[in-house]
Design brief:
InterPro entries: FAD-bd (IPR002938), FAD-dep_Monooxygenase_BioMet (IPR050493), FAD/NAD-bd_sf (IPR036188). Belongs to the paxM FAD-dependent monooxygenase family. Keywords: FAD, Flavoprotein, Monooxygenase, Oxidoreductase, Signal. This is FAD/NAD(P)-binding domain-containing protein. It is a single chain. The protein contains eleven helices and 20 strands. The protein is an alpha+beta fold and 380 residues long. Helix 1 packs parallel to helix 5. Bound molecules: flavin-adenine dinucleotide.
Amino acid sequence: MSKSVIIIGCGIAGPVLAMLLKHTGIEPVIYECKTETEQAGLALGVTPQTFKVLNILGLAEKVVALGQSVEHFISYSELLGGTVLVERDTGSLFRRLGWPMVMLSRARDSHFLCDSAKGRGIPVHFNKTLIAVRQAGDRVTTVFEDGTTSEADLLVGCDGLHSAVRDFVLPGTDAAQYMGLVQIGGFTPTPDIFKASKPGTSRQIFGDGAHFMGMPINDSQMLWVTTFAEPDEARENWRRLSINDSSSKEMLSGLRAAGWGNGAKELIQGSTFITKYGLYERTMRDVWHKGRVVLVGDAAHPTSPHLGQGANQAMEDCYHLVRLLCKAEPLEDESLEAAFTEYEHIRVPIVSLAVAGAKKEGENRVMSGERHAKHVTREY
Ligand SMILES: Cc1cc2nc3c(=O)[nH]c(=O)nc-3n(C[C@H](O)[C@H](O)[C@H](O)COP(=O)(O)OP(=O)(O)OC[C@H]3O[C@@H](n4cnc5c(N)ncnc54)[C@H](O)[C@@H]3O)c2cc1C
């Protein structure tokens, strides 16, 4: 008899995992706390290694077409008068790995993956907030806020940074900690200043105590995002804020990058919406499972976004987890324990490096004065 799997979370990892499982004959069902149509967040970068995972599902070319490949990369220092620190042709570098690196709207990516899962007959239930997990024998039961329950052979937590499944797997461990950094960003119709640039040019600017990025996410729109230190915690609900609100206007005009050159000013001024979110971390654990319950993506290993690894590491988790579950057939307590342990042995060292690297990069991005100048001259 085919096994049933409950997946909590229909962000990025959830639908990809569901489709990979379905591909192998396992029956997944997804529960998501948000509404089906929510538009939230900014953008994600999808790397060549992730396209290899999406290609198993026949979705790689379609995701490439949803965004803009990164062809060219320029880094500037605002403190050193806007000078170019480094300029690279990245397109050919990535293509040597078989696929491009693509920037795309996170909402677009998430909706596309969810629709693809539904199109393959995977049930997706929205407005379902997981509040408790019970495990008895070889069955797992999930309890939702609306009082309903569901039961399956396995449960996978793809429920992100504040994962409720993680509370069951690792009870009593630390909550997500605010890292003292926030990001504010938005989408802007491509400003005139960039219309003659090489297609797919991404830019970053190191400034005094702040960092700015501007990159195309399709033919007509660019993402911008600035990082800086802020002592007051800003929760990440990823909600898009209207730029007509007086608080948004105040937020934008107060940004250090609002007056910077190399297109930062134009990108900020042309925003169609903005979002503000704090950056969070959780202690890296080397166990991500308990019995028949296992964690994937941010639920297991949230990362700050500076190296663009969150979605990519999440999808690599999906690939390895499903590969190991296939190897573990028939799925009994012992074979599952072996599969989940091997999954952790493969993934923990790799994601630990990605998470630590992203944290370090975040610290570099908000350096001020002399430390900043020393850093950019040493690194570039
Ligand atoms: C709305 C949203 C917007 C984002 N925007 C960006 C962005 O612009 N840039 C960026 O770098 N990262 C963004 N992220 C984070 C990014 O998607 C992840 O870091 C990364 O893709 C890993 O994906 P994941 O599937 O593990 O987690 P996520 O993408 O965070 O997905 C987790 C999913 O689980 C759901 N969920 C959480 N708790 C429960 C519960 N108790 N019951 C049921 N469902 C639950 C969430 O609603 C979400 O859909 C965003 C996350 C969210 C949720």
